[in-house]
Structure formats: C-alpha cells, structure tokens
Amino acid sequence: MDLLSLSFAGVTPHEYKMLTSHGHMGVGDRIREKVSRAGRMDRGRLTGLLKAKGIDHITLDDAEYPTLLKEIYDPPFVLYYRGDVNLLEKPMLGIVGSRKATGYTRIVLQRIVPDLEGMVVVSGLAYGADDMAHNTAMENGLGTVGVLAFGHDLHYPRSTGRTRERMEQEGLVISEYPPDVKIAKWRFVARNRIIAGLSSGVLVTEAELASGSLITLDMALNENRHTYCIPGNIHAPQSAGTNEKLREGAKMVLSARDIMEDFRS
C-alpha cells in the first residue's frame, strides 16, 4: 500500500493499523472505499502538488521517521513538513501550557530553556505557552518543532503566524494531514499524541484543571515518557492543573538541571 496515497485518501492512523493487522477482509466498507480511492490516485501528481507548495514528507517506512514516535499506539504513517527534518533525530522536550499563560510562563521559560543543552523544544504552535516556548527556543539557539492540527495550507491561530513562518526557516513544522485538511476540534487532541510521542519528556508550565496540556502530559505518561510540571501559586487558576499533577507524581522543575539530569545518565 502506498502510504502517501492512503493519507490523501483520508485513511486515519487507526484505520491504517486495522489494514496492516487484518488486511482488507477485516475492515468495513468505508475503509475499503478509502483504500480503493487511494489506489486510483496518481502518486506523481501528489508529490508534484507537495513540491509546488514547498512541502516534503516522510513515511513510517522511512529511516528518517522518529524512533520514539514510531513506538506510540497509533503513530501517523505520514509526516508532512517544512523546515529542517534533521531536528527529528535529536532528543526532544515537549513544552506545553495554557493558552491563557501569564508572564510567569515567560519568566520560567527564559530561566530554563537556555540551559536545555542539545535539546529540541516541541510544542503545538498555539497561542500562549506554546508560542512562548517556540520563540524562547529560537531566541536561545535551540531547535524547535511545531506540530499542526491541520494541513499546511491553513494556520490557526492567526497570532502565531509569524512564529510559524520563522520556524519554517529556522526550525521545523510538521503535520500528519495532507495540505488542505481543515481545522476540527478533535484533531487538536490527536495532535497532542504526536507532541508526547516525539518527546522524551513533557513539561507543563501553567495549566488550568481542565487544560488540554494535561491531556498531553497524560499521553506522555502512558507512553512511558518523563513528566514535568512547574509549581505555581496555589491561588492562581493557571497553576491549579500543574500543582495537581505534581501531587499525583509529576516531577517538579525548578531549573533546567531537574530535566537534564534525566538525559545525562
């Protein structure tokens, strides 16, 4: 099966896993129709379309595909990217947090990120903590990877557009979706598994109790990754989630040393 054609035909990682496990006989009519559609696609036309948009891709079968990401339950079988794909070969730290992150997140990142020697910062190009993490990494000469929850033809939110443009030149921006795939709420949750899957550990700076950042942290825990949180003011809503995760067993981070000691043993 051609993985690029399957991706353009809308086959999901879960459906692809079903195909590889059971073959066409073990799947429903909807998946078989997608596979049939993929078989009718012109792969040369697809690669030409990507080239015209300045987008490259790697598949699950390629040597460049990140080893840690391949280990998760439902790895994306295609990664579309703009930027330096070699960053995927380096140790990565996911940094996520609230879209309503306060100046505390900025101060914490400015204190911690410069000392993350040899690490690549991974986040979701969202407003707030994600944007701060990407920019602090670039300001300090660290590689950074942004994971989109939609195709490369779109961008959301508008406020992080300039950050993305800079990352496409200095870092790496990836998506598991073909370029024209639209925004949908469920794809942001799916995106979080890629951030966790790429990373050897995930750090949450600030997060409310119901924050999506805590979903990313739980995904990291499920994939046997390191989980880190910044302690915060017990009266601050943005620290309620991180303080709760610290009580549940996430590692408290007061400096970069608390993270780096897990990568130097």
What attributes does this structure have?
single chain, 265 residues, alpha/beta, Rossmann fold, 2 domains, nine-stranded mixed β-sheet, 12 helices, 9 strands, globular
Can you tell me about this structure?
The structure is a single chain. The protein is an alpha/beta fold and 265 residues long. The chain folds into two domains: 52 residues, no CATH class; 176 residues, Rossmann fold, CATH 3.40.50.450. The protein is built from twelve helices and nine strands. Strands 1-2-6-5-4-3-7-8-9 form a nine-stranded mixed β-sheet, sandwiched between helices. Strand 8, helix 11 and strand 9 form a beta-alpha-beta unit. Helix 6 packs parallel to helix 7 and helix 9 crosses helix 10. The relative contact order is 0.13. The model has no long low-confidence stretch (mean pLDDT 95).
Q: Which CATH C-level class of the largest domain is it? A: Alpha Beta
Structural class: alpha/beta
Q: What is the annotated CATH architecture of the largest domain? A: 3-Layer(aba) Sandwich
At the fold tier of CATH, the topology name of the largest domain is: Rossmann fold
* Total E-strand runs: 9
Query: What percent of the residues sit in helical stretches (DSSP H or I)?
Result: 40-55%
H and E order = HHHHEHEEHEHEHEHEHEHEH
The CA-CA distance between the termini, in Å, is 41 Å
Largest sheet: 9 strands, mixed
Low-confidence parts lasting 5 or more residues at pLDDT below 50? none
Average pLDDT: 95
Task: Please work out how many helical segments DSSP would assign.
Answer: 12
Tell me, what's the shape?
globular
